[in-house]
């Protein structure tokens, strides 16, 4: 099953305009829950930049690699309040793999959103 998910993600990225990634099979599925990463392995955006660094530093990533992961992760999809507490898309084309997340982040004006969720910014 792990190889199927990996292969599907490569196809999805390619279909969204991303790079063609050579598939290499061989991942093995975990057979028990004890083998899965613990909750809290991924950062909680509401805790700020240092928390994000701390989480990824302990996995061996440097700042440049963290920016790539965060940017790539925000290039597609959207926030869902039932999962992260945040709401809304990161780009105007959440099914395209591009650098629009960074372009909008740098080029647009942002203000703090007035709502009952966690501290979040939206463009003007």
How would you characterize this protein structure?
The protein has helices at about 1-15, 50-55, 65-75, 100-105; strands at about 80, 90, 110, 120-124. The model has no long low-confidence stretch (mean pLDDT about 85). The protein starts with a helix and ends with a strand. It has 4 helices and 4 strands, in the order αααββαββ. It is mostly helical. Strands 1-2 form a two-stranded antiparallel ribbon. The protein has a two-stranded antiparallel sheet with strand order 3-4. Helices cover about 35% and strands about 10% of the residues.
Question: What are the salient characteristics of this protein?
Answer:
124 residues, mainly alpha, two-stranded antiparallel sheet, two-stranded antiparallel ribbon, 4 helices, 4 strands, 8% strand, globular
Helices and strands in order:
Elements: H1 2-15, H2 49-57, H3 63-75, E1 78-79, E2 88-89, H4 100-107, E3 110-112, E4 121-123
Antiparallel strand pairs: 1-2, 3-4
